[in-house]
Amino acid sequence: MNNWIQNFKISDPFWKRYEDLLTDVVIPYQEAALRDQIPDAEKSHSIENFKMAADVMQNGAEPGEYYGMVFQDSDLAKWIEAASYSLLQKPDPDLEARLDEVIETIKDAQYPDGYLNTYFTLKAPDKKWTNLQEAHELYCAGHMIEAAVANYEATGKTVLLDTMKRMADHIYQRFVVEGHPGYPGHPEIELALMRLYHATGEEKYKELSAHFINVRGVDPDYFVKEAAARGWQVWGMEAEDRTYAQNQMPVRDMTKATGHAVRAVYLYSGMADLAAETGDKDLIKACRTLWDNITTQQMYITGGIGSTVHGEAFTKDYNLPNATAYAETCASIGLIFFARRMLELEADGRYADVMERALYNTVLAGMQLDGQRFFYVNPLEVVPGISGVVPGYRHALPQRPKWYGCACCPPNVSRTIASIAKYAWGLKDETVYSHLFLGGELDLTKELGARITVETRYPYEGKVKYHIEGVPIRMAIRIPEWSRHTKLLVNGVPITVWPYKGYQYISDAQTIELYLDMDPVRVYASSRVASDSGLTAVMRGPLVYCAEGVDNGGDVLSLRLAGNGQIIAEPYTDTLCGTVKLKADGYCVHTEEGTLYSTTRPKLEPVQIDLIPYYTWGNRGLNEMRVWLPEV
Amino acid sequence: MNNWIQNFKISDPFWKRYEDLLTDVVIPYQEAALRDQIPDAEKSHSIENFKMAADVMQNGAEPGEYYGMVFQDSDLAKWIEAASYSLLQKPDPDLEARLDEVIETIKDAQYPDGYLNTYFTLKAPDKKWTNLQEAHELYCAGHMIEAAVANYEATGKTVLLDTMKRMADHIYQRFVVEGHPGYPGHPEIELALMRLYHATGEEKYKELSAHFINVRGVDPDYFVKEAAARGWQVWGMEAEDRTYAQNQMPVRDMTKATGHAVRAVYLYSGMADLAAETGDKDLIKACRTLWDNITTQQMYITGGIGSTVHGEAFTKDYNLPNATAYAETCASIGLIFFARRMLELEADGRYADVMERALYNTVLAGMQLDGQRFFYVNPLEVVPGISGVVPGYRHALPQRPKWYGCACCPPNVSRTIASIAKYAWGLKDETVYSHLFLGGELDLTKELGARITVETRYPYEGKVKYHIEGVPIRMAIRIPEWSRHTKLLVNGVPITVWPYKGYQYISDAQTIELYLDMDPVRVYASSRVASDSGLTAVMRGPLVYCAEGVDNGGDVLSLRLAGNGQIIAEPYTDTLCGTVKLKADGYCVHTEEGTLYSTTRPKLEPVQIDLIPYYTWGNRGLNEMRVWLPEV
């Protein structure tokens, strides 16, 4: 079922704010960025590239000067996806008209044979398909296919869908019918083709997705050979490092998440979608193994993945440095994609737990609370003067920029938030799954003859109340692994909480009241994570907390949690859009002044440590910030 | 006084072992390396380069193919320095003959006008002096001047000395007489010229040293202009980053140690030597300020400096990551040079304390205990599979290689150990300073009519006993800052320990018995050092300790020191050449298996933690290693 976004009207304070922010601020802001109208921000030129390409195609004009990354087309695609979904939440005829106009331009930029990519149209029309390793043609196609599906789902219009079907047909012709070798340097089209298949029911697109998944890494030297043959390059990327783009071996043999993290999770998402569709046992096994490797060996507590700036990549198990973390926003979005597809494969709460962790922490941290600045990189420790400055830390900016030359993340956050209902809900074996806890109204009249209303102030509060009207249905309510003491009332009567694989299955209820354990908890990392040893993090519900200088006298590095102290949630304030802050008993250590090393045990001054949710950090100026704190 | 090495015969177990290792293993090993005779090691070709250059000069031969770094000449120079000094400890006519032969070759490689540098002779004779930024001509000259002084001091022979005086005269002619602009891209010649001045008494060399120090950074754009003018490059180094080579401003204005750490401390050493000689108040002030910045804001507990691999450089105050530390062996050697010269400037124990810290920890760690493998980089935390492997950690090798393509460090360790007496002793205002505690016999008959015998098993034990015979003298015994409870007996009678600036001054003693506090101590870093927060290090005397996997069940990351536990020194064993190991009360934590993050507080299993001196780590195979441990 693909109409969750249409069927679900959000009304809870947390997500309603995000939805309004998206429709009223983020979508217009990002449109302005794509139209190069934001002063002092990096230029996008993405729409302009399409206009010039259309001019070439329609009028035989001389190609104008392409500007931007080789994958600049995808920034527009992600925004179209977000903007299309936003129309479902808040109809906006002007926006819809502008969308239609942009889509017409995209259609006009297409070659008669279906080919579509402005970089090649404007810069290198004779080099199409010769650089799958670097040139992102299949990646851009994937994103525009996703945009097309979203636009179709949101508006019922088929202009972009037809355009991208023609592009997909063109690709099918080349790689399947004509049998040209190769696979994408940046996976993405695999999952996009599965979406196209789900939207259209056309087997061909599933077949094409399967093709790219199946041939990947069968010839691990493909990019090496291509690089040797092509005689041109975008960046001169190293083709010898086969793990970077996950082509070191056939995908079914993979056991470790490797290389560029976004590439990796986009690929695994496509694999999971295909596996859920085909039941391919080897592919399912590979997906599970890769999932386990990521989530039990290579993931930050914030759901961030890909710990190194070098190649924006996974490194080795348990290598999770905090201050130099890369943890790209897009990578956590990709992890959410992967999680959601694993949930289609098998309803297991551990997928939803990770999905929630990545969403409420890294992905939301990727955007400033005002919706106008964005993080690409999400460090877990920030020290002004070092973060963003010192070599090795330069990527770890301590404040969000307005836009990026490589602007993959901002519109990716938008499309994820705009389609949050897809992640919140699931339907499998006639059971309605509540994966995430969002307040609002889910209209399943057409599908099941039922309507579900959810009242909650989650993640601020742990109570989630479901009202089910209409035909009795079976529901599966996720019981998060982190909720140590969970209560459930069905039709007002307490029941034993006994989840199967993370879900409590309940049939024929009129009301379900879920009380999740929102006591702040201390979290300890595996002792194999060197960077976290001796340190403690604090969570409340799905939210990872951090200490920021502005709340703590400017000095976070001197803070120590009291091992036996209390951590209490503060009453609501207006700070940080009304989030819940924590107060923890702790100490400020005073080490000897004027020396680096002292035998004098640091003096401990009792203090209250103010903690804020990680997603809200960096909203109040340049600041020290830390997720993991020593405990005494 | 420059004849400490001649006058002091080492006999204590610690340094005698090193001296024997040096004469019997290291000097021959490094000679073999320089002659490209070590199987499976990086080639040096340094002697061969000189032979080919001599062939060009003497026989007008076609230049053979130069091999190695642009500063390959300096590797041979450092070895000549070490080998010359070793002759004083252990006469070796064969070695001396080989030295003479090599020196003849060097002399033969010199141009008639005094110019000497095999890179330019063989590769670029028309490009001399056009690339001071990158091409290391002045640096190589400096090292060969140092070698010449050492060879002269050790053997009384003047072949190399005269050769290098001619080169120094050539440089003087160019930069002082003819007034060509420029200063060294890699400082070194400044301190070398001061050594040449001290050895020969010729003012001209002091003047030339002062010239390079005084013009440095006055035109901070010199390298930028040079790079624009020259039209060729060695590596294409960035001339715009003026802090890298410390030319961002005149040296007297500098307040922060910046850039390439070896360059920095070599420069500061030259500055300190000159300042001690001239009494230049601004220069003295700059030296003190830079010293304070390094030692109270930018130095590892091991005396390692230069925390980043990017440019092998200083970064920002308090940025001292452990696992990715660079802490080049040569940089700590340079810090010792700087310290020793500051001691000439003013007798203050803090300089000697740091000198000792760098020597007994980072510098000695730079060489395997068997003298045949060497560290360039000295991390404070090692995790096999990550260290030396993961991008960002690749420089931090977990085991010592046999040699390096860039082999600055191995012979630098040799020459430092071979001249250890220079660092141990000082003479100022007719007072004999005991900076470091080495057992042996110091013959000052010629200088003061006295002989001092020192009995000690330092750093294994804290007792140091001085016997003074002959004319009564004044001595200044360093009381290390780390010794919290120090006892002193003069002629068998206890005296009050009341040091002035770190030294106890004692006149006319026949015996002095010093008892230093060798109780193991816990050390805490300033809370501004993010990487060490909540962590504790252990020292005993001057030695920093670490935990290594081989002693601790393979798992160092799970170790926690017991905050209230004992740390005791073990009786001598044969392990690690008879060093003193420590046993600390502690725990092994058991975190939840199969998950990265858990709310279950880790279980603590009481264990004895084995600690070894940092300089002995990495001698027993691939291993986890950690200096800073969490404390519970």
Gist?
2 copies of one chain form a homodimer. The first copy, chain A, is α+β, with helices and mostly antiparallel strands.
Largest interface: chains, residues each? A-B, 66 and 66 residues
- Count of separate DSSP helical elements of chain A: 19
Shape of chain A: globular
Strand content of chain A: 15-25%
Low-pLDDT stretches of chain A are none
The main β sheet of chain A shows up as: 10 strands, antiparallel
Task: Give an overview in words.
The structure is a homodimer of 632-residue chains. Chain A is an alpha+beta fold. Chain A has 19 helices and 22 strands. In chain A, the strands form three sheets. In chain A, strands 2, 13, 14, 15, 16, 17, 18, 20, 21 and 22 form a ten-stranded antiparallel beta sheet that branches. In chain A, a hairpin with a 2-residue loop joins β3 (425-428) and β4 (431-434). The interface between A and B is large, with 66 and 66 residues. β19 (597-598) of chain A pairs antiparallel with β13 of chain B, so a sheet runs across the interface.
Looking at this protein, list some descriptive labels.
38% helix; 19 helices; globular; 632 residues; alpha+beta
Helices, strands, pairings?
Two copies of one chain form a homodimer.
Chain A: H1 4-7, E1 8-10, H2 13-34, H3 46-59, H4 73-89, H5 93-108, H6 118-123, H7 137-155, H8 159-177, H9 189-200, H10 203-215, H11 222-230, H12 261-278, H13 281-297, H14 329-345, H15 349-365, E2 381-382, H16 409-418, H17 420-424, E3 425-428, E4 431-434, E5 440-444, H18 445-448, E6 450-456, E7 463-470, E8 474-478, E9 487-490, E10 493-495, E11 503-507, E12 511-515, E13 521-525, E14 535-540, E15 543-548, E16 559-561, E17 567-569, H19 575-578, E18 582-590, E19 597-598, E20 603-613, E21 625-626, E22 629-630
Parallel strand pairs in A: 4-8
Antiparallel strand pairs in A: 1-5, 2-21, 3-4, 5-6, 6-7, 7-12, 8-11, 9-10, 9-12, 13-14, 14-15, 14-22, 15-20, 15-21, 16-18, 17-18, 18-20
Helix pairs in contact in A: 2-4, 2-16, 3-4, 3-5, 4-7, 4-16, 7-8, 7-9, 8-10, 9-10, 9-12, 10-12, 12-13, 12-14, 13-14, 14-15
